Amino acid sequence: MTAEKWPQLIDGLISKTHSGAVTWSSPTEDTLVVLFGAGAVRITYNEHRYYTLTLLNKEGRVLEERIAKDFSRVDQVNEQRLFEVIHTLWELARRQALKVNDVWDQALKELV
């Protein structure tokens, strides 16, 4: 039942992250979190090239998780697509949480 909701959630997060409508934080180097009224979404990444997308309630309890592995060397198109989409979300969220563009702008302003 919730399988069809994951793509909607991921697409919505990508869109809202692009527009700046959501704010991500990075509590650890391999974790990104965005809060919303009913809970949060957490993305973790590990050295085995797995992303874990987790839906949490207000108390921080795990409600559901989706794991995406890099299948670029295997013929699993749907799983590879999921990995690529979550990777895109990870990169956008990470840049926002760590204020990458602000650091670049400040560096260029001061050093160039």
List keywords for this structure.
3 helices; alpha+beta; five-stranded antiparallel beta sheet; globular; about 110 residues
Write up this protein.
With 112 residues, this protein is of the alpha+beta class. Helices cover 43% and strands 31% of the residues. It contains 3 helices and 5 strands; from the N terminus they run αβββββαα. The chain has helices at 5-19, 77-97, 100-111; strands at 24-28, 31-36, 39-46, 50-57, 62-69. It has a 5-stranded antiparallel β-sheet, covered by helices on one side. β1 and β2 form a beta hairpin. α1 packs parallel to α2 (77-97).
Strand content: 25-35%
Indicate the overall shape.
globular
Number of helices: 3
- The count of β-strands is 5
Number of domains: 1
Major beta sheet, specifics? 5 strands, antiparallel
Mean pLDDT: 90
Helix content: 40-55%
The radius of gyration computed from the alpha-carbon positions, rounded to a whole number of angstroms, is 15 Å
Order of helices and strands: HEEEEEHH
Q: Catalogue the unreliable spans.
A: none
First-residue to last-residue Cα separation: 54 Å
Strand order of the largest sheet: 1-2-3-4-5
Structural class comes to: alpha+beta
